[in-house]
Amino acid sequence: MTKDCSHVHGYIDPNWPRPDNSGSACIIIFGYVPSFTLGVLGVSLFALALLLHSWLLLRYRTWFFSTVVIGTLMEIVGYVFRSLASKLNPYSVAYFVGQYFCIVVAPVFYSAAIYSLLTVMINRVGAEYAPLRPKVILWTFVSCDVVATVIQVLGASLIGSAYSNDKDPNVPNHILLAGLAFQVLAYAIFLVLYITFIHKAHAALTPRLRRFAAATLFAALAVYLRTIIRLAETAEGLLMFLSTHEAIFGCLEFLPIILALYIFVVFHPGRYLAAKSKSPVFKPLVQLSEL
């Protein structure tokens, strides 16, 4: 049975007829046909980062940083979904929800790794400089991220379902907005705690640890920028300017996460917070990190 899409407003690519199946929305929910080039670039860069971080994880045995590997795997899957939408069916609700779920959830694992870094640094430098106990910091903000992510994924799933069933998607968008607002607030509080610790412990940090702390802060701010943009995009409303221009996605979602991920390749915590391995493999990268 053909779906009646005459009353639905949104982006439709005149060069790409909508497939007549129940899994396709009446419009392209992305607001554009996703770029296949960006999809392949995302898969390639995240796959390379996955190899590097997996090697570094095994080399230094920094298991507290292992969530970066999980997040990077999810990013790869997310960009695979975007590539499939680009080539097979940009109207597909499954491709939209799949890429949204993976790309939204993945940074939560990066945040968890950053929370872990702060707790390890506190234990390394001294608890007297910490604004809160390390375990309290770790579990409080991990819990906040879990709650925020569940709310966001629920909202995104309901938005996809609403578009698929020709229902009003604005109510689930409010759910998504609530999850993002909570995440932005919680992350801001964490950044204040992180900066407070670095300020108090500045004299106790070695020059190498200061460089590492600065690199970690830069990566944390990159992840935060991406979260703020997601909040602004959702607050603006569905199918508005921010959500319907892929250049914004590329510059303010894709690029900040890639920067954060590769910062942690060069400034890996294994080189600063764990015992060094004698392995000579990948020596140039090790030497670069020790500059």
UniProtKB/TrEMBL annotation:
It is a multi-pass membrane protein. It holds the Pfam family RTA1. Keywords: Membrane, Transmembrane, Transmembrane helix. The chain crosses the membrane at residues 27-51, 63-81, 93-115, 136-163, 175-197, 209-227, 247-267. Its main location: membrane. InterPro entries: RTA1. GO terms for cellular component: membrane. It comes from the Eukaryota. The keyword Membrane applies. It is found in: Membrane. PANTHER family: PROTEIN RTA1-RELATED (PTHR31465). This is Sphingoid long-chain base transporter RSB1. It comes from Cladophialophora chaetospira.
